[in-house]
Amino acid sequence: MKPVRTLSGVTTVTVLTKPYPCPGKCIFCPTDVRMPKSYLPDEPGAARAFQNDFDPYRQVQTRLDSYRANGHPTDKIELLILGGTWSAYRRDYQEWFVQRCFDAMNGFDSPSLVEAQRANETAACRNVGLVIETRPDEITPREIAWLRYLGVTKVQMGAQSLDDRILEINQRGHTAAQTLKATALLRAAGFKVVLHWMPNLLGATLESDRQDFQRLWQGYCPDEIKIYPCQLLENADLYAYWQRGEYHPYTTEELIHLIADLKPSIPPYCRVNRVIRDIPSTHVVEGNRRTSLRQDVLAELQRRGQSCGCIRCHEVRGEKVDPQTLTFEDYTYTAAEAEEHFLHYRTPNRKIAGYLRLSLPLLGAPDIGLADLREAALIREVHVYGQSLPVGMDQEGAAQHSGLGTRLIGAAEEIARQRGFTRMAVIAAIGTRGYYRQRGFEMGELYMVKDL
Ligand code: SF4
């Protein structure tokens, strides 16, 4: 058993959609006709999808089986759907794909998505998060309502750069303003937002990348980021630029120093999920081939006597938590059109035992047009760490079972009430509806809601 996979309290199951083109023309993005755009058949998660013919049911089922065989709990599942641009797939395919994932978690087939979702509310494998990836220019109020219908709770988007000149040279096909607008729309609808950011794009320098990274915290304020340094691959258009001598990948040393420069500036509300994409090194034509960059960066930070401020570097992981010694903190910041509160509990050595993201829409917040959200404050995430124990198998000191979630929700309600909000809405994943019902919420159209 590898405990680290489930230490955050939730087991992640990654699935890929079928091979399909993408409306994007990004010059750094690899193309392999056997795969959805941007994926290679021998990337770790992608290889499993390939073996299962991209069938959603089989992908989820085989993953759950192998987790069980290795002694991992499978009662709380975060479903991560990868593959090019989700919104570019036909909606009937999207609906079928998500339903089959729910069917696999439920262990039986349902006649419709809504019924599969309903069955999952009380299933043994409950869905506690559903993530898709798409482009910022695909995010509209209509798309958001559709994503909620599917049960999506978190959206990953490629920002790549926040500099329009770099976006244009790399043919991203959207502007930084569109990325900002997409984050504001998703935030106003309570979604968690993950941005991918790419240093070393064509036209960028180490210095311009340092400056670009700081823009992330001005309005965009992603909840999570993936730092994906651009990797030079033979089956991407960028290869021709390199052949003509117009593109130069950073060296491993340059990358380690760059990321070490950036990490200390990351605010406490953000989690850095990745600092490199797990592309097998044999595909990388020139530049960094090390996939263990995170350890190298941490070693460099230690040498400098610095540390990273992000959530991932402060998770309690397997540590025992004594609820009596925790301190409550409210880190407040302003993102595009919302006042955000990152409410969290810290242990005496500054580790985070649990957190809640409360979003209070400001006057200019976009109107998504959903009845549940009218004049509502939003809980975008409640996350309490601890060993992912099956319900009923409590372990003394494991943070997940010491009522931290309830205390965080109470604190969020109090802040919202003081600010004059009369209603709270939660973007509850299907399998967490029961949890919120027990805390006084009831099902609205697409959110769990509660009068304050
Ligand atoms: S939008 Fe994403 S998947 Fe599509 S071409 Fe660009 S990088 Fe590749």
UniProtKB/TrEMBL annotation:
Name this protein carries in UniProt: tRNA carboxymethyluridine synthase
Record keywords: 4Fe-4S, Acyltransferase, Iron, Iron-sulfur, Metal-binding, RNA-binding, S-adenosyl-L-methionine, Transferase, tRNA processing, tRNA-binding
Family: Belongs to the ELP3 family.
SUPFAM superfamilies from the UniProt entry: Acyl-CoA N-acyltransferases (Nat), Radical SAM enzymes
Record-linked Pfam families: Acetyltransf_1 (PF00583), Radical_SAM (PF04055), Radical_SAM_C (PF16199)
Gene Ontology cellular-component terms listed: cytoplasm; elongator holoenzyme complex
Involved pathway(s): tRNA modification
Gene source species: Bellilinea caldifistulae
Name of the top EC class for this enzyme: transferase
Record GO biological process: tRNA wobble base 5-methoxycarbonylmethyl-2-thiouridinylation
Cofactors demanded by this protein: [4Fe-4S] cluster
Enzyme Commission number(s) from the entry: 2.3.1.311
Reaction catalysis annotation: uridine(34) in tRNA + acetyl-CoA + S-adenosyl-L-methionine + H2O = 5-(carboxymethyl)uridine(34) in tRNA + 5'-deoxyadenosine + L-methionine + CoA + 2 H(+)
Recorded GO MF terms: 4 iron, 4 sulfur cluster binding; metal ion binding; tRNA binding; tRNA uridine(34) acetyltransferase activity
Every Elp3/MiaA/NifB-like radical SAM core domain range: 12-261
InterPro entries membership: Acyl_CoA_acyltransferase, ELP3, ELP3-like, Elp3/MiaA/NifB-like_rSAM, GNAT_dom, Radical_SAM_C, rSAM, rSAM_sf
Keyword match Calcium: no
